[in-house]
Amino acid sequence: MVRTYTFDGSLGARPGQFVMLWLPGIDEKPFSVAFDNGAETKITFFAVGPMSEELSQCCVGDLVGLRGPFGTCYEWKHGQHIALVAGGYGAAPMYFVAAETVHHGCTLEVFVGARSKEHLLYLEELESLPHVSLHVATNDGSMGFKGFNVQHLGKMLEAVQGKKRLKGNKGGDLDPIDQVFACGPEMMLKAVSELTAKYKIPSQLSLERYMKCGYGLCGNCVVDPLGIRLCCEGPVVKNDACMKIEEFGKYHRDALGKKHAF
Amino acid sequence: MGEFAGLEEEAFSCMILPMNLSQTLLGVTFANPTILASGIMGITASSWRLVAENGAGGITTKSLWLKEHKGHNNPTIISTEHWTLNAVGVPDAGPEKAREEIGDFMKKKPVPLIANIIAESVENFAATAEAILPLKPDFFEVNISCPNVEDEFGKPFACSAPAAAAVTKAVKKVSGKTPVLIKLSPNVDSIAAIADACASAGADGFTVINTVGPGMAIDLRSRMPILANKVGGLSGPGIKPIAVKCVADVFGVTKGALPIIGTGGIYTGEDAIEIMLAGASLVGIGTAVGDRGVDVFAKICDEMQLWCTNEGVDEISSLVGGMHRELSQRNAPTRKPSRSGRTRS
Prior knowledge:
By secondary structure, chain A is α/β, with parallel strands linked by helices. Chain A is built from six helices and 16 strands.
């Protein structure tokens, strides 16, 4: 089950940052911020475990605790042409990025992907923004391109970066992509990392590891061999650094620090 | 130029004449007194290396158990500008992971490694030390003072002199030539009495202190304790005076014969010097990593350098226990002039 909750008030979060969300008596986990416009804050999540299951049962007026925002955010320059790659619930923070970047004169190619049509998120919201071209991919082909969104991105990069100009799907020529931002499952991020390295396009990826404190003390989200903490030096990490993370796409650690393969 | 010229000159003179911050304790040389305290960023070799790159003179592992041990649920840490409360619950994956991570670190060891060990019984403290010994840690630090696992294991060993001595004796029996530091709790009637008992049982040194309390923080609106464990150990700037006092007590009872890692609320170079004057040779840094960043070690060293340069201190070890010497000089019948040149009238 997918839920989006809106909280009154702002934490001053930037796109890509996360908050620690506390359900008293249950647990506290990191959630990426799906939106913060200075007046309200949103999170979007899939109910996948005991905590998010419980959270999905909450009603308007129930109390939850929020700590944050924590971590790094996506960075861009005015007027850039940016490709956003969103896998599954990664669409939520990507919508936040899109909403901010279009205010800064950026044009966006947004590659949204999911297992099937009903798992696609934020399509309407993304479509409502100016200067956004939406490219949908589903694994089962129930909507848009059949396959992975990264394959879809690859086809575009091949054409755009090669010829420098290409017909956009809303008409007109497409300029080369300045940057790629991605958020989604680790294997998707790994594919984006390799693809953007191949085309020498800077990219920023949102990595995920088990977190406890959220601000750099407990060391649970440290990655090998760099030793950087994904709650402080991440979650958004530039691909130059991602490529030096040997565990990227290979393994992650649990609450005890034990390794688990992806 | 004018008004800043003096400042620039001073900064320049520190740069060309850096004071040597290194000390050799129990046969181990530390390039500077700052040590990563146990429980902070201490899970993997990559993490320890990053801390060493950021200026730490040594690192302490997170507590190592003989078997896998699950920690507490989140929230495990909550902090304000005055204090941090934590009950992570000492999670650890057991000796196999310790072998992998410590082994990796030791291959190209940038700084000394202190293996912090924990157990629920006297026998298992010894068994854990035996399991870790082949990895050749520079020191053992024996965690008999964690305030966060009382529900599981009862009062910490550090709260009773006979229990603390029993653990010390058991670990010393198997630790070979590796020095054994006992990590003491401030939450006792007399930390001096506990330290004395451990010293008699063969302790080579101490880490003073573990977290204070435990304490509790309650969320007003939900009326719930914020930590999942309800209570947790207190750290951060507010506990420094307790740490300084405990270090002074332990230094006093052992007559300065055993080295101490002083830890608790150390944020700045001046904090470090203060706890060294109380009797610490090395200085544990923990909570400050969250507030001043992982480069807090280098920052504290720079601040110590500056202070020592300004004060004309040229040997870092001359600070250790300086308060005790000052007191005894001032109290001496001949009324020798004190370090500051003043005499009592």
